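pinned: reference chain
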Amino acid sequence: MRLLLTWLINAATLMALPYLMHSVSVDNVGTALVAALVLGLVNTIIRPLLVVLTLPVTVVSLGLFILVINALLFWLVAHLVGGFHVAGFWSAFLAAILYSVISWALSTLLLNKDGNP
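pinned: its structure tokens
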């Protein structure tokens, strides 16, 4: 149940991004659901590999390179999912930060600490 609610929160966050940034667009709710699913899979499978491979750069940049990784993965998902568009890298950079903050805030408000809605 928690996984389903988290997925819906992430899809709602993706639907809110075009209202905050004009360089991000999501065609409809179905597209947001698919993009949230693909983004979750990419963050689960590919992100840890990239973090390990870029560990020296991440250490030298005091962890700030992880923001670049998040932006690149957000941009990748925009290229993979039809109907979800991001204008460029810097738009993806800001959108990834906003996406993280908004989804974290909604998850904190809607989910209890014990994992039950």
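why pinned: The chain has a mean pLDDT of 93. The two ends are 8 Å apart (CA to CA).
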